[in-house]
Write a structure and sequence with these properties.
The structure is a homodimer.
Chain A lengths: L2 H17 L2 H12 L2 E2 H8 L3 H13 L3 E6 L2 E6 L7 H18 L2
Antiparallel strand pairs in A: 1-3, 2-3
Helix pairs in contact in A: 3-4
The structure holds a DNA duplex.
DNA sequence: TGGTTATTTGGTATTTTAACCAATAAATCC
DNA sequence: GGATTTATTGGTTAAAATACCAAATAACCA
């Protein structure tokens, strides 16, 4: 694998890695429905504010979300709405796995 | 977030996490074109055979690929071809990031 | 059978992630 | 200005991921 190919896959992996956490997938799902402030997401997820804030910074760093401060709150939105389409495929893998498990019983 | 929701996102994250590595994304791309044996992938990636074998077992464990031994070789194929569609979206994020960088210059 | 090849598994060292608490920063309200 | 609220950042600790080497398996061939 040459250097260019390698860096292309590293760039992709960075984005996939940024999504590779239950809370971050949940956040993406929420933002697909509209903007959310950190406090809303924190309430829904039920973790420490600092933890949620760090998840958001991972998504932001990867270019998946953007933020906007209004008053005391910071609102996050999806930067590239297409990411929500990913879920239908991932769901397909999840379902296929469950079917395979059932078939093996 | 209730227990059921939590476990749904954990299941999704497991699959996304399995893809979250440059070599594993490369493998998925290769398998989208057809089956490949471990040795072919090892040659292309340029890592130790044991390393590639472990990447493949991560993908297999997540239900993304399946394997079939024929003779001395083990051939891997995609179990859910739709995963290749993920790339177009990830590429969109990559492009969008590059554009944002350029705009900031 | 013995040797060769392809792959997996076990072990280890290093790096990366993740969670929480505490402290800081920024905006608002009195 | 001082208190309050929202969010981020720094620090620490524990868990997970990654790479390589070495050893074990499995299938083939002479």
């Amino acid at each position: 694998m040459d250097a260019k190919t390698h860096s292309r896959y590293r760039a992709r992996a960075k984005i996939v890695k940024a999504m590779a956490h239950p809370s971050r997938l949940f956040i993406i799902d929420q933002l697909a429905e509209g903007e959310r402030c950190v406090c809303e997401l924190t309430d829904m997820i039920g973790a420490d504010t600092s933890t949620v804030s760090k998840h958001l910074s991972v998504l932001k760093e990867a270019g998946i979300v953007k933020d906007e401060k209004r008053g005391l709150q910071v609102f996050y939105t999806l930067r590239t709405p297409c990411v929500t389409r990913l879920f239908s495929c991932i769901e397909a893998v999840v379902k296929s796995n469950i079917e395979a498990q059932l078939a093996a019983m």
